[in-house]
């Protein structure tokens, strides 16, 4: 997987595409073709390589196919190769952000999308996501606690205080979990309205025993501060989940 990522990053046109998505996420193929001096087919080819490497994800919204920057692989490269050698120089790599989009004519357009492949069954992913004893191993030492019924409340508990809270909006174990989300213990969050986190869990189409986990954060137009925290935090949570389920070890991360 790392080989694919490094290969994808080696091409300047592909790096340009990542820069474009970093500046404004959720773009169509036509929008990405405008700044590049190449054919539509050429841009499609580069986007396919980036998607195969996991550096971008795509989602269909109506008739449009939207492209999103996926920060998880870059976070993993940072943890594996960069942080122990050049922490100050590489600080920016840990905070790849997708900027807030203006109003569009596409309803329910996803905003921030992160995806990771984990060598585990969907049922194991679901258990890790809903079992407080396991959640605390990768979610900044916090446990997610709930009755896990639709419309049931949940909380992110650090052992000393509640960090976040929300409601279970929808669930289809072990395939999908939709939560409203609001931070309660961070300064500057008082005026943020609840946003939405959607977890999509599906077996990999080609790799047996591998599950794709996609996290979509949206409906945060009135929660800009929350969006900034989750833009940085979700890739770390996903990396931590992968490490825990595949090795039984925990990432060395601080409190949320």
Question: What's the short version?
Answer:
By secondary structure, this protein is α+β, with helices and mostly antiparallel strands. The protein has helices at 2-9, 12-23, 29-33, 40-52, 72-86, 122-130, 132-135, 224-247; strands at residues 56-61, 64-69, 112-118, 143-146, 153-157, 162-172, 176-183, 195-203, 211-218.
Write the layout of secondary structure elements.
Layout (H helix, E strand, L loop, with lengths): L1 H8 L2 H12 L5 H5 L6 H13 L3 E6 L2 E6 L2 H15 L25 E7 L3 H9 L1 H4 L7 E4 L6 E5 L4 E11 L3 E8 L11 E9 L7 E8 L5 H24 L9
Antiparallel strand pairs: 1-2, 3-9, 4-5, 5-6, 6-7, 7-8, 8-9
Helix pairs in contact: 1-4, 5-8
Low-confidence segments, given as residue ranges, are: 84-108
Please give the count of helices: 8
Oligomer: single chain
CATH class of the largest domain: Alpha Beta
| Mean pLDDT, all residues | 84
Fraction of residues in H or I helices: 25-40%
Strands, count: 9
The spatial strand order of the largest sheet comes to 3-9-8-7-6-5-4
Give me the secondary-structure category. alpha+beta
Keywords: DNA-binding
Family: Belongs to the AHA1 family.
Organism: Paenibacillus thailandensis
Protein name: Metalloregulator ArsR/SmtB family transcription factor
């Amino acid at each position: 997987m790392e080989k694919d990522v490094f290969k994808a990053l080696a091409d300047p046109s592909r790096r340009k595409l990542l820069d474009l998505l970093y500046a404004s996420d959720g773009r169509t193929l036509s929008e990405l073709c405008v700044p590049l001096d190449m054919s539509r087919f050429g841009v499609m080819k580069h986007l396919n390589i980036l998607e195969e490497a996991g550096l971008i994800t795509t989602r269909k919204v109506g008739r449009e196919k939207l492209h999103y920057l996926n920060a998880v692989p870059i976070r993993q490269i940072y943890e594996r190769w960069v942080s122990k050698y050049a922490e100050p120089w590489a600080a920016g790599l840990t905070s790849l952000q997708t900027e807030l989009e203006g109003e569009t004519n596409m309803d329910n357009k996803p905003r921030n999308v992160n995806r990771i492949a984990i060598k585990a069954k969907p049922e194991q992913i679901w258990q890790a996501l809903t079992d407080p004893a396991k959640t605390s191993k990768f979610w900044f030492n916090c446990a997610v606690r709930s009755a896990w019924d639709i419309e049931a409340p949940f909380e992110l508990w650090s052992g000393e205080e509640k960090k976040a809270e929300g409601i279970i909006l929808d669930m289809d174990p072990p395939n999908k979990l939709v939560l409203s989300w609001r931070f309660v213990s961070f300064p500057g969050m008082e005026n943020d309205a609840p946003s939405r986190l959607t977890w999509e869990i599906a077996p990999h189409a080609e790799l047996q025993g591998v599950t794709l986990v996609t996290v979509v954060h949206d409906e945060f137009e009135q929660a800009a501060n929350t969006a900034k925290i989750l833009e940085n935090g979700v890739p770390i949570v996903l990396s931590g989940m992968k490490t825990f389920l595949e090795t039984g070890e925990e990432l060395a991360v601080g409190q949320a």
